[in-house]
Design goal:
5-stranded mixed beta sheet; alpha/beta; single chain; 31% strand
Amino acid sequence: MAVAQSWQRCRTAQFSAQWHASGAVMTVDGELDAANADQLATYVQRNVGRTSRVILDLRGLEFIGTAGFSALHRINVVCSAAQVHWAMAPSEAVSRLLRVCDPDGTLPVTGATDEPLLKAAHRGDDQRPLLQLVT
């Protein structure tokens, strides 16, 4: 079950956050550009102290400009300073930008260990399976 949820709407984008026992998922939908990229970085910075793990769900972003990349870099610095593990789940637009602006992959992208938290946020709960197959 989500502990809390908050949201902020700004020009062409909407930010929301859900806190779960295993971390927070901050979701961004719409378009991220010079008009609202600083607002995203500020939103994450205000909320990052509430957890030790953050997934930035960008799968709903239809457009991201270079100011959005700067905001992601700022988020990386903020999370590192706060010792918060974070990763992003990119949309196709974000993946395209990362190929150009971050070819060395310095910004963290979600992996298999982040999927349960993303699924919990999508379902709106934090249920875990009773059994897990170990190979």
